[in-house]
Amino acid sequence: MRGFLGNKSFKLSLLNFFMISFKEVSKDFGNKKILNKFSININKGEVVGLIGPSGAGKSVFIKMLIGFFNPSKGIIKRDEKTKMGFSMQNNSLYDYLTVKQNLWYFSKIYGVDRKTSKKRIKTLINNLGLKDYEKKIVKDISGGTKKRVDIACSLINNPDVIVLDEPFAGLDPSLIENLLNFLKELNKKGKTIVVSSHRVREILSISSQIFLVNKKNIRNTTKSYVKNLYKKW
Amino acid sequence: MVNKTAAILKKNFNVLFNAKLSSLIFILGPIILILIIGAALGDTSIKNVTAGVYYDEETNFTENFVDKMEARSFDIEKITNLENCKNLVKKGEIDVCMHIRRGNLDSFGGFNTKYTQNIGLYVDFSKQRTVWSIIGSIKGAAKQESDKAREEMVSNLKISVENVLSDLDGQKNRVDSAIDSIESIEENFEEISDNQEDSKTEMENIIDSTIKEISDLRDSLELLENSGLLTNEYTEEITYALSSLNTIESNMESLSNIVYDDFGSEEELEDIENDYLDPAKEELVDVKMSIEEIEINLENIKSSDLERIANPIQVSYSSVIGSEEGSIKSELGFLDYLFPNFLMFFILFSSMIYSAINVMRERKSNSYIRNISSNTKGINFVFSQLVSSIFIVFIQILIIIFIADFFVNLSLFSNLTNFIPFLLLSIFVFSLIGTFLGYLFNSQESSIIGAISISLIFFMFSSIIAPVETLPGIVSNIVYFSPFALLETKLRILLIFNSSLNFSLYESIALSSLVAFVIFLIGIFYNKNKRKEI
Known about the structure:
The structure holds two protein chains of two kinds. Chain A is an alpha/beta fold. Chain A is built from nine helices and nine strands.
């Protein structure tokens, strides 16, 4: 058995089964170890919730997931054709462009053709309730609207995987509700969603799988475990 | 209050020193600047001047002068055509064109004119920092040659005057001799006849008068000898002496007639004439001729250009533009000569600082992460940053040029086919360096300080502060190919002389190598630092 599992080609074939696979991954910056030897898998079409205390390494995990950081050790397996969209804690927008100009710019940068861009921008603006803001300079709109614009930008290339880092921060309850509904809609359309947040209730309401990031480790956990842990926290 | 201020100060210094590259730049910046400036500008005498020399004929003077200029570290190039010589100044290939020609022969009387020379300098006054040093250095060398020539000319003049005086001395002896002859005539007459009292009295009067004239003539010559030669008095004396000689001649003729008509036997009178009258007449004719010759010599001395003796080698200078026939720019002022420098400084600082800030602003923006996570290649971002910086600076430059056209006499829009590509090239080169600094540093203040420091170094080695002509050998060779020195020179030539844009092979290689090297560095630092901001 040991010999069978130790077979490298078998390991790779297992990795191929999942949409994204982290196998014995570690990440450190110089002498500082951030994440230590964890293995997790993300399946196609699921919503993954990422919870953990501040400074546990959630953002580093997300950046490895998106591909900004390479692991110090281990393997991250992901189909190169998998398109990623993300919205980071700080909105990745140009403050001195209008909402529409931001969407146009990122559609070009992500290589979306003109016709598709036009159609997709219109859809995103309508779906995210940005119609009244499309000609406004990003600097002049509220934090919640900026977050929606940022999410719209993250969807501009029609990604297979959507990664959202603290998407609920700064949003009022009704906007959070709207966003949760929007994410559920996306998930119904087959998008894989990874959401990192301190808001455990929202995470539990949307996630089909939960990763707990704690003590330099990431592991699968259950909703009931998280609920108990949340009570302790 | 104090505590809060101290806390803010401490925070500011902590922010500064926690950014290692920034703190390094703060400390190393001034050290590097002062070391470079100290090493390069310690001695600001001109050293690497290239001069073209054109002369009508090769003489000892031209050879000596060229040797002297070479001893002053001038690189002398002999040029066979004056117009070519001037054109080389316009193209910036030489710093000065020297036209050596012989002084005007007519202005120097009968004296030897081989020492008098005119040196005409054709210079580019836009090289404001060096042009006066170059002129001064050439004038210094010319003065040394001039001093030597003056010594020889004064010596020759002395010899001429001494010869004149010597001639006068000889003439005095002749006059004495004539007086002796006439006195002998007197004695002989007394022996020949005592009974022809009337004729005798008349003849004695004539002889006395003649002796007196000759005596006066002698006095005049003595006075001439002892008086200042080059005054009006001498001409009056000579005139008087010549007039006296005419009277003497006339007296002697009368004497001769009286002697034949009234005295003794024919044989005796012939003896008197042969022995005394004829020699006296001959002597006096000789004296007259000599005095006339002396007069000519003295006239020559008087008419000689004595100022030229004081300064036999004269140096004049003029702008190489002024000599340009049909030039559109007749008179250029200080602002005109300064404008190309100013424009280049603006391009330098604006391109470097703006492009560095442009890159840094992009790297620090929240959207940077989204850009680099896209499938767009890094070269697209770098190229776009560069082009946008070039465009912005180019617009600024165009505004400056449009407004400057009202103030300067330069024809800014007459050479657009060369001018516009040149501006774009200059902005490109410095924007590229600024872009590199934007990717090299990790904070905005570091990149700005880096851009300003490098701009200042370029600025220091400009034609205004420390042109290549004033730098030590190795430094000057490096600085010559610095993009700023190279482009500044080209812009001056282009604007002031309205020339076409030409780069030598070495200049093209130097500029291309720099561009390639900076692009290579941008590639390295873009990839190295692109994830630092995430």
